[in-house]
Amino acid sequence: MTTTLFGYWRSSAAYRLRIALNLKGVAYDQVAVNLKEGEQSGADWLAIQPQGLVPVLEHDGERLLQSPAILEWIDETWPEPGFLPRDPVERCRVRGWASIIGCDIHPLQNLRVLKTVAGDLGQGPDGMKAWAQRWMRSGLDALETLVEAAPRTGAFLGGQAPGLADIYLVPQLYNARRWGLDATAWPALEAADAACQALPAFQDALPENQPDADA
């Protein structure tokens, strides 16, 4: 069986999948789609992903789209270690935290949205940065409040081991720092991020450690 991740080194969604595959101990190849050069808009890539987005995960000839769906598939295909708590309420809580990032923060700072803000809407680079910071700050402020209020039994958002919420959190904080935000504003999130960053699965997934870094 072969597994290939099509992505871009600085894509948050591809970053999530690298973390997930690493946590499961799944070997995979990588194929870069250079977002900076616009390869995602070319005919070859659109034939694979008609939205012109990354990542795509190919496994034994099947091509899977959209990182939330792929994360579920990874967890179902390789059940251990699991990404979700056993308790239904805890599972819902973790899914909710992940959704704040995946549904409410990430889509608004996606490359195509930022280009629209800067170009089509005439806001330029400064307006684009302000837009990205605004929605990251708003979402992470809310997530920090929820995490601080929730009962937790370990260093990770997932408890004693990293789980789904951590898989979403780490790329988002990486992106927040890249856009000039100070992660110390979210001490609970920063602590969970630090616990994750101590693990090889997260270290190996870092954007700068990818073959296409700086491409």
UniProtKB/TrEMBL annotation:
Alphabetical list of Pfam families matching this protein: GST_N
Keyword Isomerase included in the entry's annotation: yes
EC number(s) stated in the UniProt entry for this protein: 5.2.1.2
InterPro entries, alphabetized: Glutathione-S-Trfase_C-like, Glutathione-S-Trfase_C_sf, Glutathione_S-Trfase, Glutathione_S-Trfase_N, GST_Zeta, GST_Zeta_C, GST_Zeta_N, Thioredoxin-like_sf
GO cellular component labels: cytoplasm
Top-tier EC class: isomerase
One Gene Ontology term of the molecular function aspect: glutathione transferase activity
GO terms of biological process kind: glutathione metabolic process; L-phenylalanine catabolic process
NCBIfam families attached to this UniProt entry: maiA
Name by which UniProt lists this protein: Maleylacetoacetate isomerase
Native source species: Maricaulis maris (strain MCS10) (Caulobacter maris)
